[in-house]
């Protein structure tokens, strides 16, 4: 079975928690796109983690984990994440790195900082877009080039000769040798590796980063990421036929959020958002896992979820952070837009005063919460399979209606 977990909104939907949960029966978990520009928050028996490159299946005993071909990898960040997990007793012996994954080098980061000052797109200034740009120019090193540092140095030399004069393109030899020592043992041929698991009938779980509205081609351009978070890209970057994808789980918050600039039709006022945001002291408060920036919050936008379904072919929805709506007296749900605009048309629904935190049985949810969920299912045309009722791994309702 091949499962793809995708963000059905703007990112920050809670994919990390759900991949950690769903990986319980996975044989291989693959992070299939993006870089360390976003974080997937996981809370389990090991502690609280904000994962940036390593798949969230790393906590599942016996499961293999692959940083896949579609990612761009800052070697220092990956090594740091490996060491952090080791120190906390997490087994990383079955962690692998696609030898076709592209590398983020220090000059990509410097260039990103310079461009962001001029463009104001809202990037995390970690070199993600620049590494993808060099990839498309066919002038970027891949992880396989760590096997032969002369090849890697030639890429760096070419970048230096063609780049901006005020950037530092030099990477010390000792750093290159350190990367080689730490990362070459993880390298695999990703096409053979992934297809071997699929063809042997194993459960392969693909983990996307960000969400459909941040897709470079299909999102709110130019306020998007530099890769394709949509489900089909799991097959493109994984090197297997898209027809082998059997399950596409779209993760959506019970409300909406966004980090950075760009259109956000259902954005709340500060007063409306304050009860949902928190103050940053709790791991599920509405602040970016990578940037720490407070998220822009909005009412649930069903037009976005319908678009996510159209683009990804969702087989199920996972609704997270339902508990954050506890105590909200009246809920607004965007069911459509005014024709020819992005001005939302809202359906008003009564909220609930009962706590849903930690509930694991659908029948024990408040009646108004169930009505809210059932409206989503009817409007989007996809059943809700799981509901998040808290930040911990087991704070999940498994719906079997």
The biggest sheet amounts to: 10 strands, mixed
Number of discrete domains: 2
* DSSP strand tally: 19
- Can you write the helix and strand succession as a string? EHEEEEEHEEHHHHEHEHEEHEEHEEEHEE
* Largest sheet strand order: 9-7-5-2-10-1-11-15-18-19
Number of helices: 11
Q: Output the CATH homologous superfamily of the largest domain.
A: Adenylosuccinate Synthetase, subunit A, domain 1
Radius of gyration: 21 Å
Helicity, as a percent range = 25-40%
How are the SSEs placed, and which strands pair?
Layout: E1 2-7, H1 15-22, E2 28-31, E3 40-44, E4 47-51, E5 64-67, E6 72-73, H2 75-87, E7 95-98, E8 102-103, H3 106-119, H4 128-136, H5 149-162, H6 173-183, E9 187-188, H7 190-199, E10 204-207, H8 232-238, E11 247-253, E12 256-258, H9 270-277, E13 296-298, E14 300-301, H10 302-312, E15 316-320, E16 330-337, E17 344-350, H11 367-380, E18 384-388, E19 396-398
Parallel strand pairs: 1-10, 1-11, 2-5, 2-10, 5-7, 6-8, 7-9, 11-15, 14-16, 15-18
Antiparallel strand pairs: 3-4, 12-13, 16-17, 18-19
Give a quick summary of the entry.
With 401 residues, the protein is of the alpha/beta class. It is 30% helix and 20% strand.
